[in-house]
Amino acid sequence: MNRTALTRYLTEFLQVGNYKDYAPNGLQVEGKERIKTIVTGVTACQALIDRAVELNADALLVHHGFFWKGEPETITGMKYRRIKSLITNDINLYGYHLPLDGHPMLGNNAELARELGIIDAESVEGVAQGLVWQGRLDEPMAPSAFAEHLAGVLGRKALHLGVSDRPIHRLAWCSGGAQDYIDIAVDLGVDAFISGEVSERTFHSAVEQDIHYFAAGHHATERFGIKALGEHLANEFGLIHHFVDIDNPV
Fold first, then answer.
1. Has 101 been labeled as part of a binding site?
2. Which CATH number describes the domain made up of 3-97+223-243?
């Protein structure tokens, strides 16, 4: 597949123009023009880039790429080594952040709902760029039972905050570092809110506003979208796809 065609397709498919983001979405480092093999992963760390080299990737697609607002502008140290590996091996790097969180078909939030068996899942319109989602479980679950279910799906134990014994039926969630959206969840009247990270203040918010909060891991809640995107591209264009999960406990 031609690089320009892939870039154009991803821009339109992921509705990149609908988001105000903290990093450029799209082609971040240019590589070879013809793309046959793609590797997907959460973060463009050195370990993932090295695996992409081993797998003879023509393009690496990630959720967390480079050139974030506020990061040093110089290409030195760790950033230099990563970018040098990409350029030396002629690998295209694509990064899609908020567009991959919010995509209605295969975004992180849509995929998280599918994996957890949440029904009637939908984004909350007009709030946080549509990145907060809500839905319900088919049957209410005790908090401890839901924590076990969440751990089984994500492969890691979530930190559960809140003191209520109220069963969990209606939920809201936002993958990644969205702990401060807990107030949005409270306004929605749900029983629980799931995100990736947690702050000291989150504990007090959960207790005082009587809501269950599950910090399930930034990486763990954002594995599914990029994998689904790679599978979609493989099916759509006949590309060879490898999803590489570089485990991260955070």
1. yes
2. 3.40.1390.30
